[in-house]
Amino acid sequence: MRTFIVEYKNNDIKDNILFNYLRHVFTCTLDYNSADIILSDIHSVNRAMKLKELSGLPVVLIFFKSQLDKLFNIDTLYIDQLICVRDTPMTYNVPPLYPYEEILFPIQILNTNSEKSLKAGNVLVYLGDSLLNDIQMYQIIRLLNGMTQFNITLLHKNINIESICNNHISVTDHFDKIDDLVESSSCVVGSGVAAILALMRYKPLVIIGDTGYGGSPTCNNLLNHRKNYFQGAIGSALGSPISNFLLYEDLEKILNNETQDLFLKEEVINNLEKDKQQIRDVVYRLKHAQNSKEYKLNTNLEVRKDGDFGIIIQRYTNQLLAELDFECLNTLKGILEGQSLDNLNQEAIQLLIENNIIVKK
């Protein structure tokens, strides 16, 4: 599927990771006239909508979960598909007028000179991609002060924290250099985007974040750590304590080059292929629906599956408007996927039309 990407020129590191990944998922074109869809970040949606007016192409808006509040400034009725990338473990109670597909933050393995950085003994510590970064930082600063065998770089918004650090710890607030800092480090201690960059560069990683101490990821728990956005112990409460003993032990193993999981890289690659297929399926369903001959879901409504049955919700008020039996739900699903109406239950189609659930395109 040929994709025309609209993105903000001064995007941050997370946006750059995401859109570099998307360029590997789809066949991209620089000419929107030859594209099948328009893919936009949240900063460029106005430009994407103008291109939609010119070309008639469907618009897919992809955004981070931490940007959900920005959707209030966008008329999502004119956007054909919303895709949300999870960059926080928090569950937001979002009004249902914003139905979206959710995907995990993608991780691609990049080439890196890991042998050179492993010999240097450099450690990057970044806990800023969380809600409790200062609290968690002060829990481990005493331990870091005692680990003089490492050259520690602390990436923190307040460089004055250097006043309580020993000489082997340097503090920087250059967040735009985080990729370079990860590249030049032996290992990474932290959460969120720092953890993702560590895995992309195939660096040893120790996870510390909002939910405490997560240790080093393995091929068995990588998926759960991704769902938790690498914020600490899986299933733990916000603000869970950090074990200094475990952190010291894990860093010592990394110093002795004992912790590299030989299967972790393979697991990251396998997950990436699944991610690619998931996002392709989302967009392909949209494209099939665009190509269906006659009907689409009423834009004021939202359909939800409940076991073998379905319910129709008013998007703005969350009011329950109708209940769908098994046959009507399957028929509606077929229409939304762009299946030929001739192959669907005609009685169910008529019921959906009469109840204004599906409308003419």
Tell me what the structure shows:
By secondary structure, the protein is α/β, with parallel strands linked by helices. The chain contains eleven helices and 17 strands. It is 35% helix and 21% strand. The strands form four sheets. A six-stranded parallel beta sheet has the order 2-1-3-4-5-6, with helices on both faces. The chain has a six-stranded mixed beta sheet with strand order 9-8-7-10-11-12, with helices on both faces. It has a three-stranded antiparallel beta sheet with strand order 14-15-16. α10 crosses α11. The chain is elongated.
Report the strand count. Answer: 17
Q: Estimate the helix proportion, in percent.
A: 25-40%
Give the overall silhouette: elongated
The chain-level mean pLDDT equals 86
Strand order of the largest sheet: 2-1-3-4-5-6
Largest sheet report = 6 strands, parallel
Task: Provide a count of the helices.
Answer: 11
- Give the amount of beta strand, in percent: 15-25%
Helix and strand pattern: EHEEHEEEHEHEEHEHEEHHHEEEEHHE
Radius of gyration: 24 Å
Instruction: Please report the distance between the alpha carbons of the first and last residues.
Output: 23 Å
Query: What would you call the quaternary organization?
Result: single chain
Class computed from helices, strands and strand pairing: alpha/beta
Poorly predicted parts = none
Helix and strand topology:
Layout: E1 2-6, H1 13-25, E2 27-28, E3 37-40, H2 45-55, E4 59-64, E5 81-86, E6 101-104, H3 114-120, E7 122-126, H4 133-146, E8 151-155, E9 169-172, H5 178-183, E10 187-190, H6 192-200, E11 205-209, E12 212-215, H7 222-227, H8 244-255, H9 264-291, E13 295-297, E14 301-306, E15 309-314, E16 320-324, H10 326-336, H11 346-354, E17 358-360
Helix pairs in contact: 10-11
